[in-house]
Amino acid sequence: MKLATLNDGSRDGQLVVVSRDLTMAHYATGVADRMQQVLDDWNFLSPQLQTLSDTLNHGHARHAFAFDPAFCLAPLPRSYALVLGQGYAQSPADGRGEPASKPCAGYAQLGFSDELLGPRAALCCASALQCPDFAAAFAVITGDVPQGATPAQALDGVRLLMLANHLVLRQLSGLASIAATAFSPVAVTPDELTLRDESVWASGKLALTLQCQVNGRKVAGLDAAHDMAVSMGAVIAQVCQTRRLRAGAIVSSGEVRQRDTTKGFASLNSLREFEGVQAGQATTPWLGQGDSVTLNMTGRDGKNVFGSIDQDVQVGQAPLTSPPLV
Length: 326
Fold this sequence. Notes:
Elements: E1 2-6, E2 14-18, E3 24-27, H1 35-40, H2 42-57, E4 65-66, E5 81-84, E6 109-111, E7 116-117, E8 123-125, E9 132-142, H3 151-156, E10 158-169, E11 178-183, E12 187-188, H4 190-193, E13 201-202, E14 205-206, E15 209-214, E16 217-223, H5 232-239, E17 249-252, H6 268-279, E18 292-298, E19 309-315
Parallel strand pairs: 5-17, 7-11, 8-19
Antiparallel strand pairs: 1-2, 1-12, 2-3, 3-4, 5-6, 9-10, 9-17, 10-11, 13-14, 15-16, 15-18, 18-19
């Protein structure tokens, strides 16, 4: 099933079930009002939502309405933890499909969870001198995952998957560089992804095509599973070596990367690093006022799975954490 949270003026929004083709929705109020409620009591509430989803997809939901991503918050507007994983090698390719240096993948650290943006919220930074950039990733929302969980047990704890966009201020370093994270309008259960093709979510790697555009120009069409060095199960298990995760934790895959440079890059930083290797200097500018970033993930049928993240860049302005009600 596919779930979303609509902006109703509250901090946690209103939970809705969304049709498989992302055209229709139905309020989930008969089952739960908020996403966190479902995550807290997943085994009892999710089957009821699945029944509503089946009814909606068969065209029999009496109170269905047109789904508009513009009114969406993040699927989970507030989270107990945001974990920044690193499932991909962190070095750029040298143009021949080989890493320019030894890859480093599998590292994970706890991040900030106070700026969980919806798919249309602006990318805001104080100054262009901070070198604003995007970093496209996918993310999972977990149930309760115990301390000491194995990668297989960690994968069993994955409840939903989403597309994510990290606003990264490249002038800064470490956690301070991650200014905010936006999420796709829709979160999807693993069984929905594997309904027609089990290989889409095999061993904790997401075999969908990540499409990235900046100002309408395509900069990436990456297979998110192809060169993923460490599965999401292993990333989550690494975090759980020292702590447990509570239902509602979000774990990011880290920037999606692929060795085949003809497929493009999921951040301007990776593109600029490649330009530096090839030409001696980077020519692509960082994001600036009025720029736009559009991200989506498609299946083998070319259909959008999570809905699109579509954000404008605002420099020198305070962030708008949710779209206004109109």
